[in-house]
Amino acid sequence: MNDNREKIIVRTSVVGILANIALAAFKAAVGLLSHSIAVVMDAVNNLSDALSSVITIVGTKLAGKAPDKKHPLGYGRLEYLSAMIIAVIVLYAGISSLVESVKKIIHPVAPDYSAIALIIIAVAVVAKIILGLFVKGTGQKVSSDALVASGSDALNDAIISASTLAAAAIYLIFGISLEAWLGAVISVFIVKAGIDILRDTVSQILGERIDAKTAQGIKQTICQVDGVEGAYDLIVNNYGPSRQIGSVHIEVPDTMTAVELDSLERDVSDAVFARHHIILAGISIYAKNTENSEAVRIEKAVRDLLEDYPDVLQMHGFFLDQTEKALQFDIIISYDAPNRKQLYQEIVKKTEVLCPDYTVNVQLDFDISD
User: Fold this and answer.
1) Can you tell me whether residue 307 is helix, strand or coil?
2) Residue 47, φ and ψ in degrees, nearest 5
3) Chain mean position to CA 92
4) Exposure check for the chain: N or C terminus, fewer CB within 10 A?
């Protein structure tokens, strides 16, 4: 699957390179002949798009390297690093074009449009729309952020080129030149695109929260396995678009043997990988009281207590050990709570008052996934 994904990304990027080089050549020629700074800057943007596609290919090839002793989880994150390089290139192109546009605003040069120039720009608009839809659609299919970004950028370019046509029409009809100002606007679009790519890429490298739909789907898959009565604390680490490794806590009856647990964990791992292509490298256990009326009563009392705290998002892992006279459970407190630590301490104290005969152990969990 990974080999096929790589081929699709490379093939799509090659199409983007060829299309952008052709468009850049046309626009540069038209811009120079008509003294249009906006068209010339648009051509520069096309060249930066072509270079971005080259970097996407290189990044994809490097990210596809097989895992080794030094990097046992592979090189998938190199795709994000290549996206950072693309962001820097886009930012440089945007800033450079902004400087040139400002110079033209200060020292204006009247544009000289011809029919052929306008036709070429119109063709470029259509070409960019087709290219953008193709690249973005392919990127979404193969989960390539670089392709999705390139496709979106191409669609933005189509809008910008259409604006160039509008400026040309205004000049030809009313004699008002908006070229330099339009060049500045185009530059702002380019800079914004670079900032967006950089922000998204840095966010992915830092480690983003898994989206709610995927998290809930994984937990649902786990809970469908016979013997599992709950799934909590799901963590998924991203080591590249096609390599995700995670861990989870599952709640099981306290009567299960080690052999039964071993078999259950394997079933859970297989089910999650088959449906979601995510490797569960760690599965921990929460024991659930069975046939213990005292545990049922106390758990209900604790849940009633927690209902008074809207910032408590979840309680799980409840277990009552009557032999050791110990009570334990985990709670998740919202990051939006005014004071998470103070709220946690208050809940611990009230639980100790509620259950004076037991040693209370309340674990404050992180809100990692939905």
Assistant:
1) coil
2) -65, -40
3) 24
4) N
Residue 114, classed as helix, strand or coil, is coil
Tokens 């546009």 identify what position?
Answer: 101
In three-state secondary structure terms, 253 is strand
Please report which helix (H) or strand (E) contains residue 41, including its range: helix 37-63
Instruction: Return the amino acid letter for 247.
Output: S
N residues, the chain = 370
Of 11, 184, 196, 9, the residue nearest 86 (C-alpha): 196
Give the pLDDT confidence score for residue 269 in this predicted structure: 95
Q: How far is residue 288's CA from residue 196's CA, in Å, rounded to a whole number?
A: 46
- pLDDT tens readout for residues 98-140: 887 888 788 877 666 667 667 777 888 888 889 889 988 998 8
Query: DSSP 3-state assignment of 233?
Result: strand
Q: What is the pLDDT of residue 230?
A: 93
Nearest Cα residue to 130 out of 161, 99, 92: 161
- Encode pLDDT of 289-320 as tens digits: 987 888 989 999 999 999 999 999 999 999 99
Residue 297 tokens, joined: 């009563």
User: Own/partner pairs for 120-127, CB < 8 Å, 24+ apart?
Assistant: 120/26, 120/27, 120/30, 121/27, 121/30, 121/39, 121/161, 121/164, 121/165, 121/168, 122/165, 123/26, 124/23, 124/26, 124/27, 124/42, 124/161, 125/158, 125/161, 125/162, 125/165, 126/158, 127/19, 127/23
Please provide residue 274's backbone torsions phi and psi, each rounded to the nearest 5 degrees.
-65, -40
Helix axes 37-63, 78-106, angle to 10 degrees: 170
What's the pTM value of the predicted model, to 2 decimals? 0.68
